[in-house]
Amino acid sequence: MAQITLHRVHAFTDHNEGGNPATVVLDADHLSEEDKQKIAHKSGTYRTAFVSSSSSATVKTEFFTPQAQIAHSSHATLAVFSLLRKQGKWQSSEATKETIDGIRKIYFEDGQVFIEQKAPVFHAPLDIWQAYDEQALLAGLNLSARDLLAPLQPVIGDMGNPFLLIPLKNAAVLKKARVVDETVKHYSEFLDVVGCYLFSLDVKQQGHDASTRLFAPRLGIKEESATGVAAGILAGFLYEFINMKKLQFVIEQGHYLQPPSPSLLHIKLNTVQQEIAHEYVGGCAQHDTTEIISY
Questions:
Q1: What does the pLDDT look like over 117-140, one tens digit per residue?
Q2: What is the extent of the structural domain holding 240?
Q3: Is residue 77 within 8 Å of residue 115, measured between CB atoms?
Q4: Do residues 234 and 252 both lie within one domain?
Q5: By CB count within 10 A, which of 29, 190, 218, 226 is most buried?
Q6: Could you tell me if 136 and 262 lie in one domain?
Q7: How many domains does the chain have?
């Protein structure tokens, strides 16, 4: 049985508090895919990032949940580059990461790490699966059609990892949401989305743009405190469908966890002729603990 060092970092923290914990494994070149999945299962966090050498980027990054590998994880990427910076292994203002689907840019600014994301793409669930039943899905989240932010409907947004965005009319509705049965997992599998990303325009702090929650039982995630890719998708949704024609957004998450873990996610849009070309999702991170485990 071998041993490995795990670094735990809270990403998208709010004034050094809260955030979403991720596990980072450095110098992972020698690990097999099976090793990585075992380590991710034992890591104690919903995301584990494995960092290895790359011939085309600053580092190669691979991301695993306790159940499976996924293409991207913004909060785990933030954890990786914050840790590299703390250890003096990343000293410039810019870097790149090699991922499953190409190279992504990273930059450091005002104490925050920003990660490049593709422009989001949106479509209705019915475009994928004829048997989609909105009422049944909402019931599985302890919600109903009356709780939606009319006239908006749930949409699938994709920026590398697809999510089902569900617009809710106020904070009270967002607060009462919960996974009540296997319906959410069932629909996540058939729609091929990571999970359900619920949002309200009611916010805890003035100047923020939306408050959010993520339920992703398909990947073994009961609820997540900060989800960078989904926040980037939401910023694109606010820009395109709610006509918030601005280039910077601040998204809240984690306030309704028990115990709460407030998180802040900053999104910057790059547009060409008012169309989103790409985005950067960023925030702060706080190193938590280091642990050696056997696998």
A1: 999 999 988 777 777 899 999 999
A2: 121-283
A3: yes
A4: yes
A5: 226
A6: yes
A7: 2
Two structure tokens written together for 235: 């910023």
In this structure, is residue 110 part of a structural domain?
no
CATH number at 162 reads 3.10.310.10
The 3-class SS string of the chain reads: CCEEEEEEEEEEEECCECCEEEEEECCCCCCCHHHHHHHHHHCCCCCEEEEECCCCCCEEEEEECCCCEECCCHHHHHHHHHHHHHCCCCCCCEEEEEECCEEEEEEEECCEEEEEEECCEEECHHHCCCCCCHHHHHHHCCCCHHHECCCCCCEEEECCCEEEEEEECCHHHHHHCCCCCCHHHHHHHHHCCCCEEEEECCCCCCCCCEEEEEEEHHHCEEEECCCHHHHHHHHHHHHHHCCCCCCEEEEEECCCCCCCCCEEEEEEEEEECCEEEEEEEEEEEEEEEEEEEEC
Q: Mean pLDDT throughout 53-82?
A: 94
The letter for the amino acid at 267 is I
The Cα 38–Cα 9 span in angstroms is: 19
Q: Is the pTM here over 0.85, yes or no?
A: yes
Percent of the chain with pLDDT over 90: 91
Asked, for residue 232, whether it belongs to a domain, the answer is yes
